[in-house]
Specification:
This protein folds into 3 domains: about 60 residues; about 90 residues, PAS domain (Beta-Lactamase), CATH 3.30.450; about 250 residues, Histidine kinase-like ATPase, C-terminal domain (Heat Shock Protein 90), CATH 3.30.565.10. About 50% of the residues lie in helices and about 20% in strands. It is built from 11 helices and 13 strands. α7 crosses α9.
Length: about 425
């Protein structure tokens, strides 16, 4: 009996010890599981954070792709498009050009040749190419795509505006040099003629020479003033004072300023502008526009001809036309004649004018909220320039030459874009 009792006690002790160690193992396992779960939780948090960063960078890349001005193509070894950005898609007017050949979507042998050469070069190649009348700066470079060689990345930038600005700069330097050299040379020759020791000038000849010097000096001053005025207009520093003004008065004043010049060629300037037309304008600036247009008309008209100024109005504008019987403007240069220093026919224009007058007219009219253009001479002989100006609300009486104190005025900077 005692033996059985001892055996039972030993068994119970063994079961207790075994349970103790089993509990320890369970606690240890639970602790390990908790640590692993915590570690998994941290890894999940890191993964989620990484995915968030990746989505953020993908979003930034997509935004950059949408707003980028530069075009980008990724091409395979056969010059087929693998990928492209939205700027490139807009350029070729195809949003899904993947799989198409580069030569199929862009008609430029220069571009294809550049990309072909870049496939065999370790460094990128750059070149300026013309595509559909626009100038592009292109860089092509071979790249590794998914670990494979033979692929080419093509980045393009439209530099048409820069090319035009560079051309304008060259024209500026050339024309300024020409316009300054001519009167300065004439002044120098006249002065040398005046002070030759062997031939002392007579008083009458001296007075005539001094008059010629004064005329050439005026030409230099006029050129300098036009350059300054154009610079101020383009920079927005010039101020327009828009006032209700009788259009006929503006036209009559402009005609009076050039009456003596017209008389030298026996020209008649006729105005058909109704007294009732009232414009919202800066009268001095608008007189300058009319003065430049009349000066051109006088320059190209034959002696004895007539120059006609007419005006008509619609719901919002007054349309003014200056017409002469000269050779007119050819259709292919109608837009270019309003560029700075552009002269449609230098061989016939002589030394009169620097090509700034029409550029100034364009800026002044656009600053008034109007438009200016030239009609082509393809339909017949004659020069015809037309511009518009905003119409004022009420008519003027015959005696209204100056704006009254109660009339509203508006002062505005000339916010016009640079050429």
């Amino acid at each position: 009996m005692e033996f059985l009792l001892t055996l039972l006690i030993i068994s119970l002790l063994g079961m207790g010890i075994a349970g103790y160690y089993q509990n320890r193992r369970l606690r240890s396992a639970n602790s390990t599981i908790s640590a692993k779960a915590e570690e998994i939780g941290k890894l999940r948090a890191q993964l989620k954070e990484s995915e968030g960063e990746q989505l953020k960078y993908q979003g930034l890349a997509a935004a950059a792709n949408r707003i980028s001005f530069d075009q980008f193509f990724l091409l395979d070894a056969d010059l087929n498009i693998i990928d492209l950005n939205q700027s490139a898609a807009r350029l070729i007017s195809e949003w899904d050009a993947r799989g198409k050949a580069l030569a199929q979507v862009l008609d430029s042998s220069e571009l294809v040749n550049l990309v072909t050469l870049a496939q065999g070069e370790s460094e990128g190649l750059e070149e300026q190419v013309v595509i559909s009348g626009s100038n592009f700066r292109v860089r092509a470079q071979s790249v590794d795509y998914l670990g494979l060689a033979g692929y080419v990345g093509v980045a393009m930038r439209d530099i048409t505006d820069l090319v035009q600005l560079n051309r304008a700069r060259r024209d500026l330097v050339a024309n300024i040099s020409h316009e300054l050299r001519t009167p300065i040379t004439r002044i120098r020759l006249i002065i040398e003629g005046l002070f030759l020791d062997a031939d002392k000038p007579k008083r009458k000849a001296s007075i005539q020479s001094l008059k010629e010097i004064a005329m050439e000096t005026d030409s230099l001053l006029w050129l300098a003033q036009e350059l300054l005025d154009l610079s101020m207009i383009e920079s927005g520093e010039a101020i327009l004072r828009l006032v209700k003004t009788p259009m006929k008065q503006v036209v009559d004043d402009a005609i009076e300023r050039l009456a003596s010049l017209a008389e030298t060629k026996n020209l008649t300037i006729v105005s058909h502008v109704p007294q009732k037309f009232a414009a919202l304008c800066d009268a001095d600036q608008l007189k300058r526009v009319l003065g430049n247009l009349l000066h051109n008309a006088i320059k190209w008209s034959s002696p004895g001809d007539a120059i006609t100024i007419t005006a008509a109005e619609n719901e919002e504008e007054i349309v003014v036309t200056v017409f002469d019987n000269g050779p007119g403007v050819s259709d292919d240069v109608r837009e270019r004649i309003f560029e700075r220093f552009y002269q449609a026919d230098v061989s016939r224009s002589g030394d009169d004018g620097a090509g700034l007058g029409l550029a100034i007219c364009k800026h002044i009219v656009e600053a008034h909220g109007g438009r200016i253009w030239a009609e082509g001479n393809s339909q017949g002989k004659g020069g015809q320039f037309v511009f518009t100006v905003l119409k004022a609300d009420t008519d003027f009486q015959q005696s209204a030459l100056e704006p009254s104190e109660t009339e509203p005025t508006l002062e505005l900077p000339q916010s016009v874009a640079p050429l």
